[in-house]
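tool=predict chain=A
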Amino acid sequence: MNVVRKEETCKETYTIDDIYALPEGERAELIEGQIYYLATPSRTHQRLLLSLSRKIADYIDIHQGNCEVNIAPFAVFLNNDDINYVEPDISVICDPSKLDEKGCHGAPDWIIEIVSPGSKQMDYYKKLLKYGTAGVREYWIVDFEKNRITVYDFQRDSLEEYAFSDKVKAGIYEDFEIDFSEINIK
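tool=predict ok
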């Protein structure tokens, strides 16, 4: 009689309940049931986050727009399921019906991720795929170490790359651009 040992071939699947059960102060994201822990962002990361979110919010306010800017930590339930939960650095949501006190239920219109040393794989690969398939209209990857802003316009199926000396046009608005040369992150 042959005995066949069953190898474990599937990983444990986590849910949003596991995210909510994390110890106080610990943050993580959930993509397709897998937990990815978040490190504390650097000072440069935070300065860039504040500057970009302020420029976007000021534009929306001046133009009396109905979109809302939210910065991390802010819950985004991408697929309205219990195995996907992300906290993008910046989320712009133009459909107020997606918002409640817990966060955004569905895909934001525009997401910006600021790359940290520990988030490169997530930002450039896992989140790129997840955001593109979830219905995000536009995704920016801002990488200050590489002096690069990568803009994915999923609606137009286009990809553009810029430097921190460039003006970058936001695809979800006709007349809004961010001049990265004006951003002081030092």
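The two ends are 70 Å apart (CA to CA). Residues 41-182 form a domain with the tt1808, chain A fold (CATH 3.90.1570.10).
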